[in-house]
Each structure stands twice: as C-alpha cells, then as structure tokens.
Specification:
The protein is mainly alpha-helical. 63% of the residues lie in helices and 3% in strands. Helix 1 packs across helix 3, helix 1 runs parallel beside helix 4 and helix 6 packs across helix 8.
Length: 189
C-alpha cells in the first residue's frame, strides 16, 4: 500500500514544477487526448512509473512519514493551483500543453482509479466521492448526457469505472454492447 500512496503522491507532485515553468501559448491537448494510446502508456513506461513509486516509498522512513509527505504535497499543490488564473496552460511531463483544469481532471482520474486499487488491496468495497466518480464517468463517456449508457449496460457507476479502467474484465457480450453504444475507452496505464 505504501507504493500505491507513493505513486499517487508522484502523480500529484508534478504540478509545482509545471506551474513554475513558463506557460505555453495555448492548450493543444484535452484530458481525453492526454490518454491517447502512445508511448506514455506503453509497458516500459508503466514499469518506469512503478519503479519511481517504489523508489519513493523505499526512501521514506515509515508509513507515517509517507503519509505526512503526501499530506504536505497535496496541500501545496492545492494552494498553488488555487492561485492560478482561469485558463492557465501548463506543459505536462509528456510535453502536452493543456489547460490546468484539464490536467487536474487527469489527476482526479489517477486518484479515483487508484482508490479502487486500494479498496481491492484492503479487501473492501470500492469507494469514490460522487463528484470524482461523476467527473471520471463524464470523461470516459464523453459528457454528463451519457449516463443512460450505464443503464443500457446494466452497470453501476463503480462497476463501469472498474471495467473502463481495466480493473475488471469485460466479457465478449459486454464488448459487443460497448461497441454498439459507441463507447471509446481511454488508454490508461
């Protein structure tokens, strides 16, 4: 679990450097486009992300120190982001110029899906705030008007998020229905 917390800390900790850097002239990538299938989610890249989290977790003296570091990190990021003007553009570590609001949506995705992972690791029912679940669902389905799609699939919101993020397998029948409904999955690491 410490490695998972370290990973979530890393995905949030990119922000101070991004905000300190000069802002690109304009946003060119949305949150959906951020999750396009390219090198950023290739097996080697995913392995490097896991190793980075493992190294960060190993550097901590105890679980309490990691938790304190995470707490300080998210609070710093929140302060920095709140101070930014609407329409602020940042450059991601992948080189994508994005609106800060769109990049923050990708961080909600990261925290939400890893919250599902944490629930699995603890053997507990998955949980998400309704706001996070709605944001991730809207991103994955293309907007809030697509909620009836879940009814057509017979999936709860959590069930959908688990399937859409590869945390639960999709049956052949479900794959056919997903295709018929025109749902496009994002590429997630």
């Amino acid at each position: 679990m410490s490695e998972l917390l370290a990973h979530v800390r890393v995905v949030i900790a990119w922000l101070p450097g991004m905000l300190a850097a000069p802002a690109p002239a304009r946003a060119e990538v949305s949150a959906v486009e951020y999750y396009r299938p390219d090198d950023r989610f290739a097996p080697d890249t995913n392995a490097a992300r896991i190793a980075l989290a493992q190294n960060h977790a190993a550097e901590q003296l105890s679980g309490a120190a990691l938790a304190e570091d995470f707490d300080a990190t998210w609070q710093q990021v929140e302060r920095l982001c709140r101070a930014e003007p609407e329409g602020r553009v940042v450059r991601t570590r992948h080189g994508d110029p994005m609106l800060l609001s769109e990049f923050l949506l990708t961080r909600v995705v990261e925290v939400a899906v890893h919250g599902l992972d944490l629930a699995d690791a603890l053997g507990r029912e998955p949980w998400l705030t309704s706001q996070a679940a709605d944001l991730v669902q809207d991103l994955l389905l293309g907007g809030p008007d697509e909620a009836p799609t879940l009814e057509k699939l017979g999936w709860s919101q959590i069930h959908f998020l688990r399937k859409a993020t590869g945390r639960e397998p999709i049956t052949e029948e479900e794959t056919v229905e997903v295709s018929r409904l025109g749902i496009q999955w994002l590429t997630l690491g």
